[in-house]
Amino acid sequence: MNIWFTNKPSPEASGKTVRRSGSWRHAIFKRVVSPSTPEPGRGTPVNYPASTPVSSRSCQFRQKRSKREIRELWKSAINQQIILIRMEKQNLRLKAKQQEADVKRLKLSYQELGTCDEEASDTWDLIMGQAQSNPTQKCDIQLLNSAILRGIPKHKRGQVWQFFMQQRKMGTDQSTSSTNYSHINLDIPYEQLLRQLTSQQHAILIDLGRTFPSHQYFSSPLGSGQLALFNILKAYSLLDTDVGYCQGLSFVVGLLLMHYEEEDAFSVLNYMMFNLGAREHYKPDMLGLQVKLYQLTRLIHDQDPDIQLLLYHNDVLPSLYAAPWFLTMFASQFPVGFAVRVLDLVMLHGVDVIAKFALAIVLDHKKELMQCNGLEQVMECFKTVVTQITSTKLDRYLRKVIDAEWDKQMLTYAVEYSVMNDEAFNTFLSESSAPQMPVRLQKSVSVESKMVQTENSRETSPTNTGESHPILGELIQRQNAEISKLKQEKAELRKDIQTLLSCVLTMQKLAKISSKGAICPPVPPQVTDIASKYVAGGANYFSSMMENGWSSAGGEINSSSAHRETLKVVEGIRREEWNGWHSVIPALSEYHGVDDNGSSHGIPPLDQDSDDNSSDHSSHHITFEKSGASRVGISSSGSHEKLTQNNNVTSTLSVFFIDLNRNQGETNWLGFLCANAILRLMSITESGMGIFSVSRLDSSL
Amino acid sequence: MDASSTNFATGSSSRSFSFKVVLLGEGCVGKTSVVLRYVEDRFNDKHVTTLQASFLQKRINIAGRRIQLAIWDTAGQERFHALGPIYYRDANGAILVYDITDKDSFEKVKTWVKELKKMLGNDICLSIAGNKTDLESQRTVSTEEAENYAALVGAKHYHTSAKLNHNIEELFLDLSERMVSISEGQQRKPTTRRNVVVVENSDTSASVPESNKTGCCG
C-alpha cells in the first residue's frame, strides 16, 4: 500500500491508515488490476496487465510518482471500471434479447401445416425486396397468391402480413375507409387507451383463460400472454365502443400476438377490423356475420345442392357450425397452423376469404357429411372430422379458394340478403292489414336497411371500390325488375288459388255423393292445367290416373287438419320472430278469410269432424331457415284408413319441396298454398295409388 | 288412428323419448363444464370459449323408458342471440346456470326465465343450477334467495359443482323425469277421445308391418 503513500514517514503507521481510509479505493484497484496482484504491504512491484499503458511507467517509477502519473492511473482505473459496467449492461441486454427470442419462439410454437422450405423464405425476401425498391408499383396478385400457396415461414409471417397490408393500402383510397368510421377516433395512442377502464372488463377477463388454453404463451393464468391479450382487447373495446368486446375476438388477437409485439398486434387488429371489414362480424347485431352465413348457404346450394339438401333436412343452420369459423377465423376449432394460413389470405384479400374457406371445407367433406343421419351426426362430423386438417387437405382448400371465382356470387347474395330484408319490411309496411306498425319499429327498420346498405357498399371488395358501384347499381336494378316480376306472379298465384279452392270444394261434394262407389269425380281441366304449372309431371299424373281409371273414391277429405296445419304454420311464423315472415301473414289471412266465410270457395271450417270413419292425418313438418328464407319445405304424410274398402291404404304424400329459388316470402307462401291445394286434390282422388312421390316445384324465372 | 303421429321424432313407441335440453346462462358460469361432466364425466378447465352453440347427446333409462337427451350448450354472450333463437326453439327443458360467486350471473338467470316464459310459455321444464359450489367460501348469491326464486317461477334448484361432480347427475335426472311426465300427460290428453290401449298396442307391434294397424281402427 506504500505505493500510494510514499510521502508518509512511517510505512507501518501509514499501512494502518491505508487499510482504514483507503479500503474502497483498494477494492476498486483490485478489481481493475488482474487478480494476480501481489500481496500488498510487501513493497513488491505490482504486476500491471500489459494492456494498460501506464503500467510500465508506474513500474519503473514506482517509488516516485508524480501527481500526473497518479491521475493517469486513476484515469485508467476509472476507464476500465466504465468498460466493466458497460459490459455488464451489454450482458443484461443480451440476456433480455435471449428472453425475447425465447418468448418469440414460445409465441410461434405452433405446428405448421405442410412443409415450408428455405426456398419459400427466399422467395418472400425477394418479393419484399423488390417491392421496397419500387414502392409505388403494386405486386402482382397472382405472384403473391402462388407464393402464399407455397407457404410463409412462421418467423417471417408477421413481416409478410405487414407487407400485404401495405399492398392493400396502395390499392384503396384511404378516404373511403376512414369516412365510414368518422365517429371513431383511430388516432388515440395505444398507451392512452391502456390507461382507461373498460365496461367490458368482465367479459374479456373470463375469456382470457379460454383462449388458446393449450398454447404455452397463453396458458399461464395472467401470464405475459394473457396480459397482452387483455391489454389489446381492452384497448380495442375502448376505441370501438360500438363493438366493444365480442367473443371470438380474443382468438384473432391471439393469432396476431403470436406474430407481433403487443402494440403492433393492436395496430394490425385495427387494420383487420376497419380496413378488411372484420368489424361487421362482431357488432352487436352481427349483421355482417349473418350476411356471410347467408352467402355460405347460397354458395353451398349453388356448388352442391345435395349437401345443402342434407343440411337443410337435418336442420343444420350455418350459424350452428360456421359462426365460430367466422368469428375466430378458424382458430378455436381448427389447428393454429391452419388458421394462420387462412389469415395469410385474409390479410391480402379481406374477410370474404373466410366464407370461401368455409365453403371449400364443406364441399370437401361431402362424402363424410352424406353418411350422416340426423342433426347429431352432422354436428359431430363438423366437430371432429371436418376440423382434422392435413397438409394435403390444406393445399386443396388453398387452391380452391385462390382459383374459384365466387366473388360475383357473393356480392349478388349480399345484395340479395339486403333486398330480401328490405323487401320483407316494405311489403309488410305497405300491405299489412294488421295494426299499424309501431313508429319505433319503423324507425328501426329504416335504420337496419341503412345498415344493410352500408354493409353492401362495404361488401364490395375494397380493392376495386371504383368499379363495384356500377355493379351494385346494376344488381339493384335487376333486383327491382325481379320484384315487379314477382308481384305479377303473385297476382297470378292468387288467382290459381281461388280456382283450386273452388275445385276442391266441388270435388269434395262429388266425392261425398259417390263415397261408396268406384266412380271418381273427374278432375276439372283447370286443375290439370295448374298442376302442370307447378308440379313437374303433374299433368301426366292426372292423365295417367284418368287412363287407369279411379279405383275408388276417396270419401270425404277432412280438411280441418289442413286448416289446423295452416294455423300451426302461422303460429310458427309468429314464434319465429323474424320480421320477414310478417309479410306472409296477409296472404294467409286472406286464405283464412275465404275459409271463415264458409262460402263456396271455402275449406270446411275447423271441427267439422269426419263422420264417415275416414280420416286424414297429415302432419306437415315445416321448417324455416332464417338465413335462407327462400326455401320452404313441406313434408306431408297423410294416411287414409277406409273401412268401406276394408283395407288400409297408407299413402305417403311424401316430401313436397318447394324451391322457388327466390327471396320473397309471400310469393313462396302463395306457391305453397297452391301446392297444398293440389296436394289436397290429389289426396281426394288418390287411393290405391300408394305413394305419390316427390315433386319439385320450380317456377324459376 | 295413426299411432305414428305422436309429437316425438322417435314416435313409434311411447316408451322412448327424445328431448331437447338447452343450457343457458352468463359467460363462464360453467355451462360447458356441466355438460361435459354429465355426458363424458370429465372436467377440463382448459377448454375454449363456447361460441354460438355446441351439441352433445346422452341416452338414459328411467323406469324402463328410453330417453335420448339432445343437450345444447350455448354461448354466454348476449349478442349471439342476434343469430336467432335456435338454442331454445322446440326445447323441452332448460337448465339455467349461474355462478354462486357471481351475483350478476344470477340476475342473468332471471332475465332468461322471463324470456323463456315469454317465448315458450309453460311447456318448458326449468331447472336452475347454482354452479361452482367448490368455491363455497366465495359465495355471493345466497342459497335462500336462489331457492326462493326458483320456487317462485316453478323451477327446480340445484347446487352443483362440475369440478367435484356434485349434483350434476341429479340435476339432469330430475329434469328428464319432469319432461317425461309432461310429455306423457300431453300424449294422454288427445287420446281421451281415442283409446289409450291403441297406443300401447302399437308399441308392442312397432316392428310389425303396417298392415297390422287394422286393429287401431277396429
TrEMBL record, chain A:
One Gene Ontology molecular-function label: GTPase activator activity
Record keywords, A-Z: Coiled coil, GTPase activation, Phosphoprotein
Region described as Disordered: 34-59, 450-470, 596-622
Q: Where do transmembrane segments lie in this chain?
A: none
Domain (Rab-GAP TBC) ranges: 151-350
**Regions of compositional bias (Polar residues) in chain numbering:** 49-59, 450-467
> The organism sits in which domain of life?
Eukaryota
Q: Coiled coil where?
A: 476-503
- Stored InterPro entries: DUF3350, Rab-GAP-TBC_dom, Rab-GAP_TBC_sf, Rab_GAP_TBC_domain
Q: What is this protein called?
A: TBC1 domain family member 1
Starting at the broadest rank, the lineage of the source organism is:
Eukaryota, Metazoa, Ecdysozoa, Arthropoda, Hexapoda
TrEMBL record, chain B:
Instruction: Say yes or no: keyword Transport present.
Output: yes
Per the UniProt record, one Pfam family is: Ras
Q: Name the membrane topology term.
A: Lipid-anchor
Q: Does the keyword Transferase apply?
A: no
Q: Report keywords, A-Z.
A: GTP-binding, Lipoprotein, Membrane, Nucleotide-binding, Prenylation, Protein transport, Transport
- Provide the protein's localization: Endomembrane system
SMART domains, A to Z: RAB, RAN, RAS, RHO
A GO biological-process term: protein transport
Q: What InterPro entries does UniProt report for this protein, alphabetically? A: P-loop_NTPase (IPR027417), Rab21 (IPR041833), Small_GTP-bd (IPR005225), Small_GTPase (IPR001806)
Q: Which Gene3D superfamilies does the record cross-reference, listed alphabetically?
A: P-loop containing nucleotide triphosphate hydrolases
For this chain, one GO molecular function annotation is:
GTP binding
Q: Name one GO cellular component term.
A: endomembrane system
In terms of PROSITE patterns, this protein maps to: RAB (PS51419), RAS (PS51421), RHO (PS51420)
What does the sequence similarity comment in the record state about its family? Belongs to the small GTPase superfamily. Rab family.
Name of the protein in its database record: Ras-related protein Rab-21
Which species does the entry assign this protein to? Orchesella cincta (Springtail)
